[in-house]
Structure prediction request, 587 residues.
Amino acid sequence: MDVEEFRKYGKEVIDYICQYGTNIEERDVAPTLDPGYLKKLLPADAPQSPEPFKDVLEDFEQKIMPGVVHWNHPKFFAYFPSGNSFPSVLGDMLSSAIGSIGFSWASCPAAAELETIVMNWYAKALGLPKAFVSDAPGSTGGGALQGSASECVLVSLIAARARAISELKGQTSVHDSVFLPSLIAYASREAHSSVEKATKMALVKLRIIDADEHGRMRVDLLRQAIQNDVNAGLTPFFVVATVGTTGGCAFDDITEIGKVCRQVSSIWLHVDGAYAGNSFILPEMRVFSAGLEYADSFNTNPNKLLLTNFDASALWVRDVMNLKSALNVNPLYLRHEHLTGVDYRHYGIPLSRRFRALKLWFVFRTYGIRGLQEYIRNHMALAKKFEMLVRKDERFEVRNDVHLGLVCFRMRTGDEPNHMLLAQINHSGKMHMTPAKFNGRYVIRFCVTYEHATEKDILEAWTQIKCFAEEILRDHQLESSSVPTTPEGSERTSSEPVAPVAGKPPIKKRLTRTKSLRFSFTRSISREQYQSQSEHLMDGCTPILVVDPKTLQENFQKAADDNDRNNSNGNVKLKDISDVDTDEASN
Prediction:
């Protein structure tokens, strides 16, 4: 492709992007295709000869787009927002065109220096402690853009591990690996699974701390766990607090957690704010950032709630020397004479780094702080609107505290009807949502994600949700015991049938059991597998595990057969069946 062809097709691609964004509502939010659909449409081998680019674009629309989930659709309410905006896309285009590999200041001075400047802008906009701002008087801290929050957690954990081992090692010549068995990290049960993955990669233990009824880490249990581990000869070295958990957008109490961590000098406190950390750009949300002065590191993703497209995750540390001492590898061919320039290869896992700061710079300059604040406040207001609609309907309940853009709701029935509800919603293709386990119950996560979302989008979504629920609730009783406290001023309505949105009725398709599991994001497993998975953290995209009723029936039949045999020997007790087992089976 020569420059003139690039100019021609580049304009066509820009026009396509504009049309896609303008007419995205005409598309289904998510496909209902089966795995392997694309293999049937594309050849088994790459072409030997060049093909016209026009044909490539046609195949993109006809073969690729039917399998795309549209994360920037007005009716996409799943996961968390996938930050995107035209200024960000344009910044990424220029970054790709420049093609610099910014591993050091010498490799691209503009990339290194803009990243430093933008990260300081960002820290100040969020109201972070001055210790994280590299140009603040007396600061030894600073920030860097990573690829994801998972990278941020891993980098922080590696730095914490290196610091702890250095303290344990002292002046001895013992190899670092000798100290690994004594290191232990801590995270809430509501923390992201990236914490668990990081501890596996770092070969250290992880202790999971239970959360309270609001989804916040129980500080009393953290304190006790740390004390028990110290008494057992272990070295607590890493604690993760979360602001905006994946399951219910809960905010851990950073101040109280920080006070506990300060009592043990070897502990590094990391605060994961992948989604909700961006909300600290609003002064009214900084009540949840109280305590960040205790943190050694903090991360948040502009590619979630700051209109910057993936990949871009911001990590700040209190002392950048902790990163450099843990991650510094400086072969001769990478050295240069500009000693005052920042080499960001020492701030993360990869050597090669994209010019990520460019798109974030475009976003800050194009929207301004006020524009970004308005965008987040709109999400908050719409989430509150949806919460109010749910609470007014006696058939539904809200299970989380709604502070930002996420509402976790469910029908006041058992879990299985809620599986059915989510499956119907997602199988329709007209909306897309995901589930979570919150306080032990299956909930449907409704997250406002679209940049230009309006109240109309929320009202239409709620009307369709109720239409799907009508049919399911005909065959299921409401649970009076789980009726939530109604906020003052909210009046519940009766459950009279509600007509679907004019012109867009929900498509109620009969689902097989396999499709019902798939579209409700659940996975049916044996009780033994379920119990073995109970100590793992969730990530917001893994299917919710449920005990297979067929397996339960088989286990019960086996126990009954054993009981019959025992009865013949004068033993009348059901073998292997306890009260706990029976309760679990009934759920």
